[in-house]
Amino acid sequence: MPFHHFIHDSAGWQTLGDETLFANPHLEVHRATVTSPTRAEPFEWTVTHRKGAVVIVPMTKSGDFLLVRQERVAIRAAIWEFPAGQIDDHEEPEAIRATALRELQEESGHELAAGGELLSLGHFFPSVGFTDEHSHLVLARPVVPSSLGAAHDSTEAIVECRAFSPAEFQQMIARGEINDANTLAAYARLVALGLW
Amino acid sequence: MPFHHFIHDSAGWQTLGDETLFANPHLEVHRATVTSPTRAEPFEWTVTHRKGAVVIVPMTKSGDFLLVRQERVAIRAAIWEFPAGQIDDHEEPEAIRATALRELQEESGHELAAGGELLSLGHFFPSVGFTDEHSHLVLARPVVPSSLGAAHDSTEAIVECRAFSPAEFQQMIARGEINDANTLAAYARLVALGLW
Question: Checking CA distances to B75, which of A147, A193, B12, B116 falls within 20 to 30 Å?
Answer without folding.
Answer: A193
